[in-house]
Structures are given as structure tokens and as C-alpha cells.
Design a protein that fits this description.
The chain folds into three domains: 104 residues, Rossmann fold, CATH 3.40.50; 77 residues, Orthogonal Bundle (Helix Hairpins); 146 residues, Heat Shock Protein 90 (2-Layer Sandwich), CATH 3.30.565. It is 52% helix and 17% strand. Helix 7 packs across helix 8 and helix 8 runs antiparallel to helix 9. The longest helix has 79 residues. It is rod-shaped, with a radius of gyration of 42 Å.
Length: 384
């Protein structure tokens, strides 16, 4: 099948027929498709119905001269990008500058030199085609960017929905667990006051332990839900770090009266202060101690070490247990990660909650393994 080659189209505008004949002959022989106009109005009428790759425009014509025609074309959306070469017998600088100011791209002086005419014609048509190709490429890129942006917006919206689903799930779990747990706790309290065999007492102890773990899970899940959806409004007030540490250890031991673990508190001076929500910081320290007992064992040794620098307060929880697992430590602060210490079970909710609490206090949390064995969790908070 024969493929038709599209020729570039040129409009020649000149009121002298001989000039049109010369230009038409030179350009047609070079393979261009030529159209003609003998005055400005005729040229404007043609350009209303057809597009061209180049316009050769005479300056001195009856009626509208070339300058006026050029200015009109440059104001129209359809023709403003079409290159215009002026045909002129005037080679003075003033006429040339006036042509450029009107919007022309170049000029050719009469009488015509065929080599110069073809060279300038070819150059400006190529520039015009490259400019159109660049504009089309920019439009394509803008469309792709717009499509990609829309995809990212949709992905962000889906992530937001997933995050809300996860948060709602935690809230539902917390609520659904709390109600039956209250009943279980009440029943275990009543049973502990009755005559039981040794085997029954063992079962009751196990039941109490399980219900306590579920209660802690429920409390942590509820706290994370409140922090994630910003329902919890921390009240940051100047607080002595020494008081926070002592309060956390005392409350933890009160809640775990049969605990065999050794907990030692190394306090700083009572004058060291941080801006904190005391209840949230206390809960953070208690969750750290609970994690240490859970994974290091009932007879572990825990040290809560509090230090002060010029700009921050460092609170470290150290234990002598197995330490952190290399795999789980990579996503240890993520919700629903598989395990937060060496133990491969668990939800990782405690450290995820502590991370959120530190964020509220413009603080930070880091985890590592001790050289001598055991885990270390380091909390850093701005000092005031």
C-alpha cells in the first residue's frame, strides 16, 4: 500500500504576482504545499479556515500592511504559534525591529535568494514542529502527572480507610472485652473467698492471670484508639521526673502484689522537670515493666534508670531476660507486629502505645539489646 507523505503547508502573502510566482516555484520544487493571498484581508480569511506550518508575509501591501496582519494573527489562539517570516525590500534596522516587535520570527529581503529562502523556511518549520512536539509532550506529561496524582490520592484515601478500620477494630475489641472481663473479675474475686481445693486454687490463679492479661490488652487497645484518633487530649504540665518514676513503680507493685521480680529505681534529682501528662508517662513505665516481666520471667531483675542531660531526660528500662528478636525489632513499634521481645507471640501493642505517647510529648523511644544480656528500652523527653 502506498503511504501518502504529508507536505508542510506554507501561505505566501504578497500583492505582487511576480513575487508569488517566484516564491511558489522555489518552494514547490522543494516539496512544500503552497497557498497564496494577495492582501492582508484575504490572508486572514484563509487562515480562519485552514492552518499552515509557515507564513511568508509581505510588509508593504494595500489595506492592512504586514505588521498589522502579523499583530492580528498573534492575538488569535489558532495562529499565534505559527511562525511568520516577513518579505521586505527594506533592510533598515528600524523596519526589522518593527517586524520583530509585531511578532515576526525572521525576515527575507527582496530580491529573493533561493538558497537563503529555503534555508530560513526549513529552519523555522523545523523549530515550529519541535515546539509543537514539545508542547504535546508537556501535555502528555501533565496528563500522566495528573493521573499519577489521582492514583496517589486514591491510594492515600484507601490507606486512610484501612487505618480507620484498624482503629475501629481496636475500639470494638476493647469494648467487647471489657464487659465480660468485669464479670469474670467479679466471679474470680467471689471464688477466692470460698473453700477451694488446691487444684481449684491453681485453676483460679490461672484464670485470674488470663483475665488480667485480657484486661491489660483491652486498656492498651483503648488507649491506642484514643491516641490515634486524637480523642485523648494530653494535659502537659511541669512534673518532677523523680515523682513519675516512683509513682509508676509503686502503682505497678500494688497491682502485682505476688510478683517475684526485683524492681529497682535509680532516680534523678527531684528538681529535674519535664512537661508531661503524668498519667500517660506512668502508663508507659508500667507497660515497660509489664513487658519485662512477661518476657524475662517472674523472677527477673528490672532497673528503671533515670538520667538528666542539659536538654533532655532519659528514662531506661533494663531487664536480664532474653532480649529483642532481630526480626521483630525491625517493626517493633507497628501495631499488630508479631512479638515485641524474643517471644514470638503477642501483639506489640505496648510499644506501639508508648511510641504514640512519646510522640505526644515530642519525645522518642529506642530499643536495643544489652551487651551483658537482656533488653533495654530508652525513652527521651525534652527537659524544662
Amino acid at each position: 500500500m502506498k503511504v501518502e507523505i504529508m507536505k508542510q503547508k506554507i501561505l505566501v502573502v504578497d500583492d505582487v504576482p511576480k513575487n508569488i510566482q517566484i516564491l511558489g516555484s522555489i518552494l514547490s520544487n522543494a516539496g512544500y504545499q503552497i497557498a497564496y493571498a494577495q492582501d492582508g484581508d484575504q490572508a486572514l480569511n484563509i487562515l480562519e479556515h485552514q492552518t499552515f506550518d509557515l507564513i511568508l508575509l509581505d510588509i508593504m501591501m494595500p489595506g492592512k500592511d504586514g505588521y498589522e496582519v502579523c499583530r492580528i494573527l498573534k492575538k488569535k489562539e489558532k495562529t499565534r504559534e505559527t511562525p511568520i517570516i516577513f518579505l521586505t525590500a527594506k533592510a533598515d534596522m528600524e523596519s526589522i525591529i518593527k517586524g520583530f516587535e509585531a511578532g515576526g520570527q525572521d525576515y527575507i529581503t527582496k530580491p529573493f535568494n533561493s538558497s537563503e529562502l529555503l534555508a530560513r523556511t526549513k529552519t523555522h518549520i523545523q523549530l515550529h514542529e519541535q515546539k509543537k512536539a514539545l508542547a504535546e509532550l508537556n501535555q502528555s506529561l501533565e496528563q500522566k502527572v495528573e493521573e499519577r496524582t489521582k492514583e496517589l490520592d486514591n491510594a492515600y484515601e484507601r490507606l486512610g480507610k484501612l487505618e480507620k478500620t484498624k482503629t475501629d477494630f481496636l475500639a470494638i475489641i476493647s469494648h467487647e472485652l471489657r464487659t465480660p472481663l468485669n464479670g469474670i473479675t467479679g466471679l474470680t474475686t467471689l471464688l477466692s473467698q470460698t473453700q477451694l481445693s488446691e487444684e481449684q486454687k491453681e485453676y483460679l490463679t490461672y484464670l485470674e492471670d488470663v483475665s488480667d492479661r485480657l484486661a491489660r490488652f483491652s486498656d492498651i487497645a483503648l488507649l491506642i484508639t484514643q491516641l490515634k484518633v486524637h480523642k485523648y487530649k494530653p494535659d502537659l504540665i511541669p512534673t518532677a521526673v523523680k515523682y513519675l518514676g516512683e509513682m509508676a513503680v509503686e502503682h505497678f507493685l500494688e497491682m502485682h502484689k505476688n510478683l517475684q521480680a526485683s524492681i529497682r529505681l535509680n532516680n534523678v534529682d527531684k528538681k529535674v522537670m519535664i512537661a508531661a501528662d503524668a498519667d500517660l508517662i506512668r502508663q508507659s513505665l508500667e507497660m515497660l515493666m509489664a513487658n519485662a516481666v512477661k518476657y524475662a520471667g517472674e523472677q527477673c531483675h528490672i532497673l528503671i534508670n533515670i538520667e538528666s542531660t542539659d536538654s533532655e531526660v532519659i528514662i531506661e528500662c533494663l531487664d536480664d531476660g532474653p532480649g529483642f528478636n532481630k526480626e521483630s525489632i525491625k517493626n517493633i513499634f507497628e501495631l499488630f507486629s508479631t512479638g515485641d521481645i524474643l517471644h514470638e507471640e503477642g501483639t506489640g501493642l505496648s510499644l506501639a502505645a508508648i511510641k504514640l505517647i512519646m510522640n505526644f510529648h515530642n519525645g522518642n523511644v529506642q530499643v536495643s539489646n544489652r551487651k551483658e544480656g537482656g533488653a533495654k528500652v530508652r525513652l527521651s523527653l525534652p527537659k524544662i
